[in-house]
Design goal:
Blueprint lengths: L11 E7 L6 H17 L3 E6 L10 H7 L4 E4 L24 H10 L2 H11 L4 E8 L6 E3 L13 E3 L4 H7 L3 E2 L4 H9 L5 E2 L4 H7 L7 E4 L8 E7 H5 L3 H35 L3 E4 L2 H21 L1 H24 L3 H9 L5
Parallel strand pairs: 1-2, 1-3, 6-7, 6-8, 9-11
Antiparallel strand pairs: 3-10, 4-10, 5-9
Amino acid sequence: MSAPMIAMAQTTSLRFQSTWPTKDIFHEYANDFAKKVNDMAGGRLKIEVLPAGAVVPAFQLLEAVNKGTLDGGHGVVAYHYGKNTALALWGSGPSFGMDANMVLAWHNYGGGKALLEEIYKSINMDVVSYLYGPMPTQPLGWFKKPVAKVDDIKGLKFRTVGLSVDIFTGLGAAVNPLSAGEIVPALDRGLIDAAEFNNASSDRALGFQDVAKNCMLQSFHQSAEQFEVLFNKGKYNALSAELKAIIDYAVQAASADMSWKAIERNSQDYIELKKAGVKFYKTPDAVLRAQLAAWDKIVAAKSGENALFKKVIDSQKVFAQRAGQWHNDYSVDFKMAYNHYFAKKKA
């Protein structure tokens, strides 16, 4: 009697594109997520990640995933800002004093996920979205001269994205929302005067240190951003319940892993940027306060124009007031301990 035939599980292959160049740590994060899914799926599911521009330009990722041109993608929600301004609220602005991990807490437990689904439905985007990966606070940006006062930003040709466009416009800059790979060449050719992207590792890989030597640290324009993993809804729905669970837990695992890797790599690249002659300065408090004042005007205007924008803002505010009170009251001053051990002692 012959042995029974064992059916081999068929591999489902999904083609993803990130919104980042291959050399960017963010593209590495996209590959890290895909590897976790692929390893756990044991050959039944394989995600292949292509870099920005391989199939579509970075800012066209959402439409490509919706149409099925791509099966999925890796980017940030703020890149879809042009379709509905409310989408930029996952990352742009001061988030009522929440850090990026707290915004993810609001998203997953405070109603944000349902609101994002509602917005995507309103703009006819048939996608499944996972948010993960709390980003460290982003610098104000790279400048030819240090920013000493609010007036120093007026008239600058500046690169940023999302509702940060409105913040810097409110501060008097002329804003150009270039994609990642276009920023440094534009700075080099004088098409823009200053720019922000994200973090020490990404900024170094993009080559900011070769075209500008002053970086202003600390800002409220993107102090609480996170990443997005997108799936075409039809492709996602065709997966088994087990594979969907693998994706769900891979997102959570990748979120933690990314936050740890960011600390390791950003701190090392911060040192390398200093070695390359970059001078870092703290953004003056007057500029930070001006950002908050500009943000308040943006929120008032957009909330009046867009009911979904107001809905997201109201939801974030309720969560932030409660979570922020707890966080601020319970958290110790880590800088005090750091200075105790590492600050130069006065003679």
